[in-house]
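Hi C.,

You asked whether I'd gotten around to modeling the 323-residue construct. I have! Everything is below, sequence then structure, no commentary in between.
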Amino acid sequence: MPTLLDVKNLKTYYTTLRGYVKAVDGVSFAIEKGEAMGLVGESGCGKTTVILSILKILPPEGRILDGNVFFKGVDLVKLSEKEMRDKIRWKGISLVFQGAMNALNPVYKVGDQIAEAIRTHEPNVSKKEALERGRKLFELVGLDPDRINSYPHEFSGGMKQRAVIAMALACNPDLLIADEPATALDVIIQAQVLQLIKQLRKTLHLSMILITHDLSIVAESCDKLAVMYAGKIVEYGDLATIFKEPLHPYTQALIKAFPDVRAERSPLVSIPGSPPDLLFPPSGCRFNPRCPYSMDICSKKEPVPIEVKSKMHQVACHLIGKR
């Protein structure tokens, strides 16, 4: 399959009065056409910053210092704001923001907001045509098309999430990025939204990046997995391979932290300690202060990703090769 998105050694830092926050520090991964990748890790590990960097919608204090983001062979890092707005956002890459509850403008009808997105990127489309497309999008995501003229406060949380997904699909993007799409929804609605995303992938042949801290969501929806810790990807590859044989101690700990509904009831295994301060991250491997297998080299030398058996499984850990 052709590569749709290829992120190479991406570094994005935030400027503060105390120094640089190394939020994303040398991240690399690729998405093939029609593929879905889960990007997982604890809160504050840099997942959302990766996505904001790809779309170049960082806050003023954020800056891409190094790396490349190739989308369909074009390096987005080198594009101007106008080129990103006219050619990439919405049309090429679309984003479902975290917290759909607040993603819609409360004083405009939902249909008008979808129509605005369409007409901004396709000026020749009339408002009537845009609203008709909005109705079809509502149908696609399981909403009553007659609710196109409703205001956001007239929608439940699950309906708002579906409406935001419909808006993200308004300009037929090649890549859909969903940032914690099930946040603040009860488990029943979460399951419905995730099922909807799976159906849309199949129907529209979408490529997708799913950002979450919940490995069970990734297991249901993705083909590959990137595990992120303290601004770096520590394990990356085929989802089934990593779930069957996780090699990085952090990935192992994440998987053990989730209960298995099929197994006997047992206490959850937590990860001791706290994530590091990314203003002053630890030397060597950033997980070494919390790692039960930490060796002398772990605090002195940063591990580089090593291919394990195939290119579809890479791990950045000094333990690899010593087992």
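If it helps when you're writing up: The chain has a mean pLDDT of 91.

Thanks,
B.
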